[in-house]
C-alpha cells in the first residue's frame, strides 16, 4: 500500500512552453505525483544525470535546439531506460515509428484532457509497480515474449514496436490465454472504466477493433501467418497461441 507521504510516482516534464509546463505540472502534483519540470532537451538530460529516480518522462516533441526525438536518443545512449511518453501535436505514423524504435511507450496530443494523460500515466507508473511487486518480469506464450517492466513485446525474438495502449491490450489477452475479453473490458483498460466513447452508445467497439487491427498488422509485418488474437464474434477477443 502506498504511504500517505509517498508520491504516486516521480515524473520529469520537459516542454519549452512555460505556461503549459506550469499548468500540467501543477495538475499532476495535485494528483499525487512528484514532478520536476525543465524547459528543454539539454536541461532534461542534466536533470536525468542526478541521482533522483524518475518513473516516467513526459517529453515535448517540438523544442528549439535539441528536439524530443534527439532527447530520447541520447537518453537511451546514456543508459536511461525509464518510459517516455511524448506530448505532441504530431500524428503522422512516421514520427510514431521513429520514436517507438527508440523506446518511447506512447503519444498524447496536447489537446487531450487531463483525465486522458492521467489514465496513460497510471498504465505506465502503476503498471510498472504492479509488475515489480508481482515479480512479473517476463511472460512467454509460444513465440510471444512480453517484458512488462519496460513495456516491450517480442515475436520469435524480433521486437514488435507497440504503443503503451497496444502493449496493455496484448498483455491482458496473453496473460490469460483462451479467456474471452469483451469489447467493453478491453476499452476500459485503456480509457478508464465507464468512459463514454464517440460514435454513439456502442462506439467503443469501433475503437477496440481499430486497436486490435493495428496490433495484428504489426505482428504480421514480422510473421504473415500470425493469428493468435482471435475474435469471439459479437463479444470481443481472446489469445490462442495453439498450445
Provide an overview of this structure.
- The strands form 3 sheets. This protein has a 5-stranded parallel sheet, sandwiched between helices. A 4-stranded antiparallel sheet has the order 6-7-8-9, covered by helices on one side.
- It has 243 residues and is of the alpha/beta class.
- Helix 7 packs across helix 8 (203-220).
- The radius of gyration is 18 Å and the shape is globular.
- It starts with 9 loop residues before the first strand and ends with a strand.
- The chain folds into 2 domains: 10-131, Rossmann fold (3-Layer(aba) Sandwich); 136-239, Winged helix-like DNA-binding domain superfamily/Winged helix DNA-binding domain (Arc Repressor Mutant, subunit A, Orthogonal Bundle).
- The protein is built from 8 helices and 12 strands.
- Helix content is 41%, strand content 20%.
- A hairpin with a 2-residue loop joins strand 6 (139-141) and strand 7 (144-147).
- The mean pLDDT is 83.
Task: Provide a compact summary of the structure.
It is built from eight helices and twelve strands.
Spell out the blueprint of helices and strands.
Elements: E1 10-14, H1 18-30, E2 34-38, H2 41-48, E3 56-60, H3 68-77, E4 84-88, H4 93-101, E5 106-109, H5 114-134, E6 139-141, E7 144-147, E8 152-155, E9 158-160, H6 164-175, E10 181-182, H7 183-191, H8 203-220, E11 229-232, E12 236-239
Parallel strand pairs: 1-2, 1-3, 3-4, 4-5
Antiparallel strand pairs: 6-7, 7-8, 8-9, 10-12, 11-12
Helix pairs in contact: 2-3, 6-8, 7-8
